[in-house]
């Protein structure tokens, strides 16, 4: 399945993406805030292989999408949908540092929220992040997601126990929000 926006193409990760995926996912600027950190390109390849068997909208699974530049096809990030149950989806996203602050994460999440709510008719989308991750918190709030919970030292990370900030948005809130400005 492929989704395109003005500048991006979201589709399945391919074996040949392993080196690029490893390069940015192992970058400390990205890995610090993510649960999965590949130790090698082979690790990234295994991750991609595992994704092959994941069908869209399967409860209990993460369904990962590649974020590519539409003009070159270059992999610049990835986005995950965790189908928590039949009504709730959790989001995750990473953009390679070299491509950050150009509006790509927002562009990818806007079209994915349209798909999750308008296409799959999910009831609620959540995100869980380290409250020190100001970039992601601002990104999600700029999309209309609301801070719903701050859990003290509830997540074990490479740094030990860290806090967890949960944001969320409902289908009716997203569908009622004014459509994003075209690129
Ligand atoms: C968070 C992340 C995905 C943002 O990606 P991005 O493509 O740079 O984000 P965008 O350019 O679309 O930014 C959209 C908005 O998010 C906020 N934002 C993004 N990066 C920010 C930063 N470094 N500092 C403050 N706000 C930031 C701003 O509100 C920005 O809007 P603006 O540029 O108009 O001010 C990226 O920094 C990343 O991959 N970080 C590492 C992994 C991670 O933290 N993932 C999220 C865990 S849930």
In short:
With about 180 residues, the chain is α+β, with helices and mostly antiparallel strands. The chain is about 30% helix and about 35% strand.
Description of the structure:
With 183 residues, this protein is of the alpha+beta class. The protein has a single domain (3-182), classed as Gcn5-related N-acetyltransferase (GNAT) (Aminopeptidase, 3-Layer(aba) Sandwich). It is 30% helix and 33% strand. The protein has 6 helices and 8 strands; from the N terminus they run E-E-H-H-H-E-E-E-H-E-H-E-E-H. Strands 1-2-3-4-5-6-8-7 form an 8-stranded mixed sheet, sandwiched between helices. Helix 1 packs across helix 3. The longest helix is centred in the middle third of the chain and has 16 residues, at 104-119. The relative contact order is 0.14. The model has no long low-confidence stretch (mean pLDDT 96). Bound molecules: coenzyme A. Coenzyme A binds at residues 30, 33-34, 92-95, 100-106, 127, 129, 133-136, 138-139, 142.
Instruction: Give the overall shape, derived from the CA principal axes.
Output: globular
Bound molecules: coenzyme A
Order of helices and strands: EEHHHEEEHEHEEH
Which regions have little confidence, pLDDT < 50, spanning 5+ residues?
none
Give the tally of structural domains: 1
Main beta-sheet annotation: 8 strands, mixed
């Amino acid at each position: 399945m492929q989704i395109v926006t003005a500048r991006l193409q979201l589709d399945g990760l391919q074996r040949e993406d392993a080196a690029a995926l490893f390069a940015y996912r192992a970058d400390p600027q990205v890995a610090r805030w993510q649960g999965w950190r590949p130790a090698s390109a082979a690790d990234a390849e295994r991750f991609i292989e595992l994704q092959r068997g994941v069908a869209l909208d399967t409860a209990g699974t993460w369904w990962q999408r590649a974020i590519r530049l539409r003009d070159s096809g270059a992999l610049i990030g990835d986005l995950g949908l965790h189908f928590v149950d039949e009504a709730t989806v959790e989001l995750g996203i990473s953009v390679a540092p070299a491509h950050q602050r150009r509006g790509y994460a927002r562009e990818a999440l806007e079209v994915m929220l349209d798909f999750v709510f308008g296409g799959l008719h999910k009831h609620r989308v959540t995100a869980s992040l380290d409250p020190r991750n100001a970039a992601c918190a601002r990104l999600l709030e700029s999309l209309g997601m609301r801070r719903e919970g701050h859990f003290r030292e509830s997540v074990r990370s490479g740094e030990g126990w860290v806090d967890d900030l949960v944001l969320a948005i409902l289908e009716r809130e997203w569908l009622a929000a004014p459509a994003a400005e075209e690129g």
